């Protein structure tokens, strides 16, 4: 999906910087879009920061950051573990959340830094979350937790960043046939539900064009349709008051940022 978005942006005149752990695919992608490539692991802050720094040096500004890196879970969270000699289970395999939670947060953090350096300051961040950021996937609990985290991160950051002319949203697709899983795994799924890569790229383009009314949204994408999902309604007035005393939260919106944050 990262490549589809890069291609679409490059066709619209954007200069693109590709960052990926996979050097061969990353180089080929950069060549395809006439951009630059930096090999970096999003779980290694210094590598990711270097990639941003290199992009800034090359282009002199960064207007849009697409936090896209992802993997499927590498180990079952449910697997019963053998105890080690001290009677404790071994440390869990948390690569999925290191990539899609910690890595995505680091990407957003660095994005914020560099968008602020622009003159005038500002720009856009889009996180590629997942519909597993809205609905729970029992076969991917860490994937689900990470993607729910991205929806929360988007909703939490949007109103404060708005004041700095920085817009953030996240995309929550259903199934998209990519390299994320082996082709056979995708073939076993209901083919009527798939979202084409072009649709993901066109959602990104339209979010960038309408960021004043989409900042803070989690955008569900399924088939050829997409839906803007805002913060859920409060369960009752007491909870709403509770959140007022926390300092407020961004309001549910229907076009245009309204916020009740007390700055
Ligand atoms: N394919 C789907 O059905 C689907 C649905 C919803 C959300 N997503 C999300 O979309 C995003 C893009 O995935 P995709 O489906 O295009 O899969 P993909 O495997 O084609 O692309 C993921 C890219 O992330 C890179 N990557 C993985 N770990 C990395 C790391 N530690 N550091 C740097 N790069 C790393 C991979 O090398 C790869 O190029 C992921 O975050 C995924 O969770 C995918």
UniProtKB/TrEMBL annotation:
Alphabetized Pfam families for the sequence: adh_short
GO CC annotation: cytoplasm
Entry keywords, A to Z: NADP, Oxidoreductase
Molecular function (Gene Ontology), one example: oxidoreductase activity, acting on the CH-OH group of donors, NAD or NADP as acceptor
UniProt-listed PANTHER family: 15-HYDROXYPROSTAGLANDIN DEHYDROGENASE [NAD(+)] (PTHR44229:SF4)
Family assignment from sequence similarity: Belongs to the short-chain dehydrogenases/reductases (SDR) family.
Protein name: 15-hydroxyprostaglandin dehydrogenase (NAD)
Species, as recorded: Capronia epimyces CBS 606.96
Taxonomic lineage from the root: Eukaryota, Fungi, Dikarya, Ascomycota, Pezizomycotina
């Amino acid at each position: 999906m990262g490549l589809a978005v890069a291609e679409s942006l490059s066709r619209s005149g954007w200069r693109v910087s590709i960052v990926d752990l996979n050097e061969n695919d990353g180089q080929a992608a950069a060549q395809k879009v006439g951009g630059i490539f930096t090999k970096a692991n999003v779980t290694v802050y210094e590598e990711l920061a270097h990639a941003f720094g290199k992009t800034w040096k090359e282009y002199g500004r960064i207007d849009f950051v697409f936090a896209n890196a992802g993997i499927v879970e590498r180990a079952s969270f449910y697997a019963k573990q053998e105890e080690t000699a001290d009677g404790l289970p071994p440390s869990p395999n948390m690569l999925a959340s290191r990539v899609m939670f910690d890595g995505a947060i680091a990407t957003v953090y660095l994005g914020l830094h560099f968008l602020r350096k622009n003159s005038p300051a500002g720009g856009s961040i889009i996180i590629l979350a997942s519909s597993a950021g809205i609905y729970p996937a029992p076969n991917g609990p860490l994937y689900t937790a990470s993607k729910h985290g991205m929806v929360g991160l988007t909703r939490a950051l949007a109103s404060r960043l708005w004041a700095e002319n920085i817009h953030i949203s996240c995309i929550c697709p259903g199934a998209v046939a990519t390299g994320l899983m082996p082709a056979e795994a995708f073939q076993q799924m209901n083919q009527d539900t798939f979202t084409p890569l072009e649709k993901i790229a066109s959602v990104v383009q339209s979010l960038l064009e309408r960021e004043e009314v989409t900042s803070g949204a989690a955008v569900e994408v399924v088939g050829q349709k997409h839906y803007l999902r805002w913060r859920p309604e409060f369960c009752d007035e007491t909870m709403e008051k509770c959140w007022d005393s926390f300092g407020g939260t961004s309001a549910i919106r229907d076009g245009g940022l309204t916020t009740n944050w007390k700055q």
